Amino acid sequence: MATTILYGPYSVVADGGYLAPNASKNWWWGPFDYLGAVTVTAVPFSMFGSERVLTVTNVRLETKPTAKLYLYATVTNTGTDPANFFWMITSVQQ
Questions:
Q1: What is the domain extent for residue 34?
Q2: 3-state DSSP call for residue 16?
Q3: Closest by Cα among 2, 4, 7, 5 to 70
Q4: Quick check: pTM over 0.90?
């Protein structure tokens, strides 16, 4: 089985130049045509600090009135240092 990148990676430099500790950023993708299981990942990158921990929550699919699907997620910096990050949406394919 292989991991396939469906969307991304998308680099995110949050407002103020970084995502501060305890701050969150929402993101969406769509229309989203893939109907299998997916993984939403946020990977920190930064030139400062030593504890960059990101948590991805509130991953959901929503159907709009046009019958199109949209994927939403939230990333929160749960570490003690500011961080920038990139998003990826992946799926395992046989």
A1: 2-93
A2: helix
A3: 7
A4: no
